[in-house]
Amino acid sequence: KAPLLEVSGLSVDYGLKGVSSRAIDSVSFALRAGEAVGLVGESGSGKTTTAMAIAGLLSPNARVSGGQVCYRGNRLPIEDDAAMRPHRWSETSVVFQGAMNALNPVHRIIKQIAEPCMLKLGMPRGEATARAGELLELVGIPADRGAAYPHELSGGMRQRVMIAMALACRPSIIIGDEPTTALDVITQAQILKLLGELRSQLNLALILITHDLSVVAESCDRVMIMYAGRIVEDGTVAEIFAKPKHPYTRLLIDSIPNPANGKKMIRPIPGDPPNLVNRPSGCAFHPRCPSAMGLCATDVPSFDKFGRSRVACHLHRSSQEDKVAAHA
Ligand code: SF4
């Protein structure tokens, strides 16, 4: 049986003033119905480009230079905005960060939720408004609050409205692009809990994009760590947190504050994220990697499978000893 979503060898380039840079490079993964996957990395790692490509929302200066995205076994026309319209919101929906910018300030929220039901599902206004009320209840907002304008709601409530809008056309996949970034810690936890509940209630697959690894710990089954446009580690949440293989994953975990052991502050990872126009040779992480060896500066590590997990690092290759010997 084909997975719900299959991304194979996907590469996307951005062109700016005649200069092209590769934002994502040979990204491959599959997503099953009802599965929750976290896509984690620093800004510029390619996580948002991956998600926008899947939703057919790439910016006009982006070009798909390789690979494909299949939904239920059928290739999606991800570069063709008009051809993607029947799919977007009906099969794959996006919850963006910063709901205040995404909502229309002059329309009542009930109208904004009813609109996709009318446009996409062809519902008459009365039916769409009734469905919008049900969707509000589903995300924990009393239906009679539907008359409110966005500025009359708290940040957490607005994000709930965004989730209701994303669910309006009964999609199978929800992409959350840093959906809790602008919220305080308690509201963040409530929104993540809501997404988890909706996921099991509606059998939704969830792709959660975040720079914060701790966000995925509670809400996801699997984590994919991205660096410089590539997935560098992919495994279950339990595996990644208990036994991270990639040095970058290890540093990401170490950077999470943990008051229980006296680590109160986020410890930033030393060095800067790479410049994608001038990408480091070999393993792109080598200038920042505490475990870098000679071959790391010259050889791109392959993305190897270890049981159910995958990692791209010369420290974890069956033929690693030969390669190290050859470069000694
Ligand atoms: Fe570090 Fe080398 Fe592994 Fe890259 S391949 S993460 S530089 S050890």
Automatic annotation (TrEMBL):
Keyword Heme in annotation: no
Gene3D superfamilies xrefs: P-loop containing nucleotide triphosphate hydrolases
Record bears the keyword ATP-binding: yes
Domain of life of the organism encoding this protein: Bacteria
InterPro entries given in the database record: AAA+_ATPase (IPR003593), ABC_Ni/Peptide_Import (IPR050388), ABC_transporter-like_ATP-bd (IPR003439), ABC_transporter-like_CS (IPR017871), Oligopep_ABC_C (IPR013563), P-loop_NTPase (IPR027417)
Principal subcellular localisation of the protein: membrane
Gene Ontology annotations of biological process type: peptide transport; transmembrane transport
All residue ranges annotated as the ABC transporter domain in the record: 5-253
PROSITE patterns found in the cross-reference section: ABC_TRANSPORTER_1, ABC_TRANSPORTER_2
GO molecular function, a single term: ATP binding
Any single Gene Ontology cellular-component annotation: plasma membrane
Family: Belongs to the ABC transporter superfamily.
Protein name from the UniProt record: ABC transporter ATP-binding protein
Lineage, uppermost ranks: Bacteria, Pseudomonadati, Pseudomonadota, Alphaproteobacteria, Hyphomicrobiales
